[in-house]
Specification:
Blueprint lengths: L1 H17 L4 H19 L4 H4 L2 H9 L3 H17 L2 H14 L6 H17 L2 H18 L4 H12 L1 H4 L4 H24 L13 H7 L1 H18 L17 H20 L5 H18 L5 H35 L1 H10 L5 H15 L5 H17 L5 H17 L5 H9 L6 H24 L21 H11 L5
Helix pairs in contact: 1-2, 1-16, 1-17, 2-16, 5-11, 5-15, 5-16, 6-7, 6-8, 6-14, 7-8, 7-9, 7-13, 8-9, 8-21, 9-21, 9-22, 11-12, 11-19, 11-20, 12-20, 13-22, 14-15, 16-19, 17-19, 18-19, 18-20, 20-22
Amino acid sequence: MGWIGLALLLLSLALMLGSGWPTYAVLLGVSALGAALGLAVGAFDAAVLGSLPARVLGLLEHDLLQALALYALVGALLNQLALGGTLYAGLQRLLGGMAPRAAPELAGLALGTLLAPMNGSVGASLLALARSADAQWAAQGLAPARRAAGIALASTLGVIVPPSLVLLLLGDAMMRAHTEGLNIARQRALPLATADIRIVNTQDVLQAALVPGALLLLGWLAITLWRTRKRPPGPAPRDAWAAGQRWTLVLVPSLISALLVLVALGRVRAVEAAATAALALLAWGVVSRRLGWRLLWRVLDDAMALTGALFALLLAATSLTLLLRAYGSDALVGEAMLALQGHPGAALAMVMAVMLGCAFVLDAFELIFLVVPVVMPPLLAQVGDAAWVAALVLLVLQAGFLLPPFGYAVVLARAQVLPRPSLRPLVLALLPYLAWCAVVAGVVVGWPQCTRWLRSAPATVPAAVNSEQEVERLMREMSQPRP
């Protein structure tokens, strides 16, 4: 009865796209419907549903969820303290001396690079960037299509720039999927069953994304410079630097950049970096006298709302994936993909096509919680390098969010910009950036080594170790800090 589970999944996607209801409410409602139907037709026993509390508690005990709440707090502080607007103005002023024609859009991309990894979802990043940059872009005469494209592009940088919350959650999901995939390989006696492959961890995914993320960002900056080469330079600012603006421009990006680098290199855990950033922003808000009791209450309210929404989404997605397994839908998908045994490239292309299509209607968190557990294990039973696959997933998600007319970031960005840009100029504005995203994805497919340069842990488990010291060294290498 695997087709019933797939029908429930399609029903969930249709309701999320057409109803406007909260995603977690749709998933919980469909899960309740599917559970009642399954019990009525005898598809599974009620004992299967009794395992749901244990699965949820197991997820809640994971220390990654501590980082989730702290990331939400950091994002709320960045938004409520209006640091985005201050940083954008300072970055534009700084870049205006080096590239006056491209300074507004370069400042937007730079702001997205700094804030999007700490802001949580693509939607939250997009709203923050729209508040920070759109009014100033409109005042400087940028066309609505260019403004919408700039907001959409900058907001998706949190998908690929480490160590974003998207990356951390994907790393954890890939670890679970990789474990299941290797178990499938052993049960089916697939070629990977005889390989001593180490289970991927979050740190592997972070480090695999560094080079593709750097290539993507550098290419987008170069495209922006090239496209603005004939634009008349804007007027140079005549007012003096506002009090504290220089220090904000130096300290805040330095702190965020240092924490991003330390987490990406494995020197600190994501939860530690998020806690440090939250304390630093709280201290800055108190010292600068921007953070009063009322604003602090709004910060905590926003952080709790985002944390609650993500936890509700996690609970709802866990419920639906349990039903899919109970119906045997995961086995049905697995059989379809394992029919491509001997053609791992075709299986990889199939999964990437599914991820691209789902990116039109789902945010990154929904994809990670709902789609990755279903389609990734049978793929990783055939493809050994899970971190390389994760880097490709990130690039595909980023492209999917930006594909007009239904890309998630494109739809949200068009709604934020007034007057609403028409589709044709928006497509032309996004086309070079999408083309470069495709080029980077092609580089990652054709040259997997670019995702392995900075990985500090071994990809395989040695056949034997000869001393206690060697065992300890191996365990340290294999247990990179994982949020």
